[in-house]
């Protein structure tokens, strides 16, 4: 039992926790954490969505890096080093606000990832495959399911494997990001020299409130995740030293790895031609014509020779990159849910660590089943439209993810007050200010996701999501609010089902 647990959990640690934690293995070193963080934070599936807002997107990306990304790094560096127990964000939230708050928050934190893996990420991988290996033609329904289900369950298998094996997926994913985004950025420069670039004036970078409302949720979605390695806190070799080291280095790399490709897309493609699903993939295909191929009068890019070879290589790296994003988030959030299971905030059945693998296999399998269900339902409900499926699932994933941080971010200030004498190898400056600012930003983004434009012109033409009209604003509100409310109720149910574990801990005392 750590000092943090003694202070923050006066009822005592459940016997179940002591039993399960003994099965965990220490395989998570400094550079493993760094690569894990890069896969967590740097996702390529939303690059096109951000770039589709034009040059203004680059401005807001930099602004939020300063007012959101850096403060969240400071916050997580303190909490991760001071309270390095397995479960990370669940431990911080539950010890700050109680197990009920921790249970609800942790369910939201977990559920978004199988939804994201089965929807947004799998469809992004399919799009890359069809663009480069199937001449842009959609897969048949059976082929679509074979590809996407293989994608999902390979990810689940990687999460099941012990960390000394499974961690190689994030490592490979981190290097695929470096190569893919680096090669793309260099190629944009070559393309610009040969063909010229789309120009935009300084005025195009001017930030607007409309742009802020549209961009802030997805940019925050890209910028969260510093806490994820701490879900495997008891598997780290030296969390107190390695967590701050990895967080601050990954923060710098993440901003560069987002900013350069987004700027590159804006330089290469007209804004009207950039789509959320295919924007980055289309830009890769177009700029790679410098190695072989041409761009037709209608804007269609055709690769040949070395361009075709490099394009295929880029597609493989893109698929590896989105797969590693899903794997890292599933690895982390599944561990957090398992911890809440043996801590009394979820069914005890889920709080089991495999003696063979040292991983929460039961939760891993549950994540795979949820991903599969989301994939099938979303595909059938959108009549097989990849673009609609991508947009629908991304909106749900973003909103669910952001709401979960309403419990994580305030924990810094609360734990400073509740546990002032817990050793803090790193202390964030202005903890109360950081907690308040980050929480308010998350609250604003969450409200705008559910009711776009609220406070100005709710669901007006500048705010309504693509494909929705003003008359459908209540329908849209329900499509966002009902799943969130359902997830909250499921979190409460999980807490109720964890009561036997809590009673056993209380009786032990």
UniProtKB/TrEMBL annotation:
Give the UniProt keywords, A-Z.
Cell membrane, Membrane, Transmembrane, Transmembrane helix, Transport
- Cellular localisation: Cell membrane
Q: Where are the transmembrane segments?
A: 31-51, 57-77, 107-132, 144-166, 178-197, 209-226, 247-269, 313-332, 361-378, 390-415, 436-454, 474-498
Q: Does the keyword Transmembrane apply?
A: yes
Q: What is its main location?
A: membrane
Annotated organism of origin: Streptomyces pseudovenezuelae
Topological type in the membrane = Multi-pass membrane protein
- Would you tell me the protein name for this molecule? Amino acid transporter
* Keyword Cell membrane belongs to the record: yes
